[in-house]
Amino acid sequence: MIKNYFKLTWRNIKANKVLSFLNILGLTSGLFCFLLIYLWISSENSVNKYHTNIDDLYSVYLTSSDGPGFGYGTPSLLYKELKEKVPEIEGVVAMSNNNRNYTFSNNKKVLKQKGKHVSEDYFNMFSFNILEGNASNALRNPNDIAISKDMAELFFDNVKSAIGQTLTFENSKALKITMVFELGSKNTTENSDFYLSFDSLFAESPWMTDWKNLGTYTFVQLTKGADEKQVEQKLKTFLKDYESVSLLAIELQPYGDSYLYADLESGSGKIEYVRLFGIIAFLIMLIASINFMNLASAGSIKRAKEIGVRKVLGAGKGSLVGQFLGEAILLSLSSLFFALIFIALVLPVFNQITDKNIDLENLPISTWIMVLLITLFTGILSGSYPAFLLSSFKVTDIFKKKIETSSRTKWIRKALVVFQFTISVVFISCMLIISKQIDYVQNKDIGFERENLLAVTLSEDLQKNYNAFKTGALQISGVNSVTKTSHILLGDYGTSPEVIWNGKSDDDGSLFTGMVGSIDFIKTYGAKLLMGRDLIHNNPDNIEYLINESAMKQMKMENPLGQTISFWGNSGTIVGVVKDFHFSSLKESIFPLVIRSEGYVEFNTAFIKYNTDNVQQTLASIESLHATLNPAFPFEYKFMDSEYNKLYKSESTFYKLSTFFSILAILISCLGLFGLVMFTAEQRTKEIGMRKVVGASVFAITSLITRDFIKLILLGIAIGIPIAWYFMNKWLTNYEYRIDMPWWVFVTTGSLIISIALVTVSFESIKIALVNPIKSLKND
């Protein structure tokens, strides 16, 4: 029997080549989109979840007494206190809050590598493939270093020969290689080339001994069987005895959730995009299934005699339903084959866009089983309506050529087309609004001149020789100004309550972010002064402060110039107020900022303002100057406009993918519309023939057919626009700074949908209208 089903299916495909092609094309497109999104969602959901102890690992974050989340920054001393005083905690790790590039050298090479400082429990708590060395004591001493396999192969002949060797760090001290590792999985946010001892960072950073500085990430591993809620309740009051942070409470977040739920205040984050793409995948697959139903219905009349003969020969309804469902499943499996071919072809580009490492060859067997089940379900869903429709035909009606579908069935098909175009309207409208918001954030005046602004890393040697570097840079044609700062203030930033001013109450836990600036900061950064002046010296005995508008409001100062404030114990005078400028995503409001002229924080970055006359020549001259003054270190720089755009990487990725999927959604919807036109042609063949006999023109017949479909499309547009408005209005509220909802987007979307649909409908309608009426009426 199954063999006969295959034969009948193949015979039907050959007899209806166009219809079969459209069926397979629609299902292939739907499965292609669905499976591609499914692979991405699976990858997103498994990020950082490969660790052996994942069920017991937690990220620590802090909240204030009134509840709002402050983020993952914690006091650097916290990890030691937790380990000593909380018995339910088996292990604690402290980690520096930035993944910096440092210079390493041996007798052969000088290279920049990216890494962090971590405490010694790190390799015991988190899973790595240890190639050489011992995880339990890899970072026991301040001058120990653990390096990746790739880093070992860069500096040495092989991994084994790296153990026990030394690398010169920042041209200042020798580090002993105690371990070589490989990441436990490619699907991780951890991308460090090396890890240094956290104790060594303590020795070099006096500010870390201050409990008020929240510049360290902390992770804990609970003991087996420990109740997370009970431990968290105990930790809420843990800091009450530490005066400077007594108003803060410790909270725990499962480490596996920290990637998707990084927005602690809203309990959201990248999970929103996962959910959104999940909905998109479901809807596209539903559109493709609807297509199959409409196209199969369109071809039902052609198979009427086959059904009649089989019923006369004794075939029951169950047998016919089984046959048609089998055909649908077979077509689904064929579509899966083609979809996987297309996925394999586009996967490299998809991985590049989404920054993923999805590989079909290495997918787990569970994923393949799920893909197969999805395909079978799609076949059953797509084939169910046509199967029950075709098997319900009566034998007498078939041979008397009185096959008609009920008004209810007609309305179902029409409703399916309306649904398809409703979804297409939502997709296109959302795509256009997202593109406008991305364009807005990329071109908005953010309060400082990010264009033509170069950030150059200053090594310790170059910090000492900064004046010569600045003098030399200013002599280069194209360089307008130079300044130095403690860091690049863009994206992630640390916070601290350690700002003291006259009139601050004891229970004021206001948080500020800070940086160290230098002479010509305003001139180079392009920020705007509201009052006062720029920094004019870096005298540690006469510290100056710039503050932004938000800081002025936070401190409730009407005339802050000349007033004294202290940040991290450095007392100084406010000399200027800077107009608020954005140094994080436009999703966030501008944070209170203080810029200090001096302190114990080193100047890590030089900012160079240049003109665009000859950028490559200017850059080459700066690199040459750097090589002259700092020959032991590679030249490292970043363009600030590129760094700013990185803040919106998720939005940019979402826009690119939604554009692609929107185009496919329109294509699939048009296939469904084409199928319904074919079905209408089958049902109204004689009517059209008779109209032509009595003198109806091609235009009149085309208009007759087209008019009904345009009504359906207009209904889809009318339903889709409010839905798109609702979802996009909700999405835009994630941004503190956003566009107004553009009404023209919906007009453009409607016009585009109608134009595409008209082309689709008119093509088939004209073809029908041109048929010789003799052929239409000869069998009557």
Could you describe the 3D structure shown?
By secondary structure, the chain is of the alpha+beta class. The protein contains 25 helices and 23 strands. The strands form four sheets. Strands 15, 16, 17, 18, 19, 20 and 21 form a seven-stranded mixed beta sheet that branches. Strands 4-5-10-7-9-8 form a six-stranded mixed barrel. Strands 1, 2, 3, 11 and 12 form a five-stranded antiparallel beta sheet that branches. Helix 9 (271-298) packs antiparallel against helix 14 and helix 14 packs across helix 23. The two termini are 36 Å apart. 40% of the residues are buried.
Key features?
single chain; 780 residues; alpha+beta; 7-stranded mixed beta sheet; 6-stranded mixed beta barrel; 25 helices; 49% helix; elongated
Quick summary:
With 780 residues, this protein is α+β, with helices and mostly antiparallel strands. 49% of the residues lie in helices and 17% in strands. Helix 2 runs antiparallel to helix 9 (271-298), helix 2 (17-45) packs across helix 11 (317-354) and helix 14 packs across helix 23.
